């Protein structure tokens, strides 16, 4: 079902925010659609589930896709995108917990009840095996990175999915791996259980 209020919010905010419009680009849709379909096929979420999105950006595609869950933790280091998501895009969603934080500063208790941890921005962060909260987590995970080295904000790209696997925590069991072609390169997707 189309969320008409969200659509109106996107049009209003997008008139003067090209960064927000980029979060809805065909490449963003394609890569997140593959992730969403794999998660739905695993049948691991229900109305009582909690999802944590690391590096959530605006949450443009993932938040509406999983809006039926009990709670979504949207975490991003950029206060501006958190404020826009919270106050302008998804103000009518009551199940979102916004956190303006560096994901590497989180404690286990910030996401203790999480059933699924999503990070579609691994190329912007240190390897996930360095994230302490994942070492004791029992959550499912869905992580994406890419080989788009020429984008200045991409500080941790990988050449292939095997290199991406080396960045996973030692307790990660990979259930699904996929490649998504993009106009600028390839996105790599790993889904599994911690």
Description of the structure:
With 194 residues, this protein is of the alpha/beta class. The protein has one domain: Vaccinia Virus protein VP39 (Rossmann fold), CATH 3.40.50.150. 29% of the residues lie in helices and 24% in strands. The protein contains seven helices and seven strands; from the N terminus they run αααβαβαββαβαββ. The protein has helices at 4-14, 18-22, 26-42, 62-65, 79-89, 132-135, 161-165, and strands at 50-54, 71-76, 96-100, 116-119, 140-146, 173-182, 185-193. It has a seven-stranded mixed sheet with strand order 3-2-1-4-5-7-6. The longest helix has 17 residues, at 26-42. It is globular and about 45 Å long. The mean pLDDT is 95.
Mean pLDDT: 95
Helical proportion?
25-40%
CATH topology: Rossmann fold
What is the approximate shape? globular
Q: Spell out the CATH superfamily.
A: Vaccinia Virus protein VP39
The first-level CATH class is given as Alpha Beta
- The string of secondary-structure elements, in order, is HHHEHEHEEHEHEE
Radius of gyration, CA atoms, in whole angstroms: 16 Å
What descriptive keywords fit this protein?
seven-stranded mixed beta sheet; alpha/beta
Topology, pairings included?
Elements: H1 4-14, H2 18-22, H3 26-42, E1 50-54, H4 62-65, E2 71-76, H5 79-89, E3 96-100, E4 116-119, H6 132-135, E5 140-146, H7 161-165, E6 173-182, E7 185-193
Parallel strand pairs: 1-2, 1-4, 2-3, 4-5
Antiparallel strand pairs: 5-7, 6-7
Short overview:
This protein is an alpha/beta fold and 194 residues long. The chain has seven helices and seven strands.
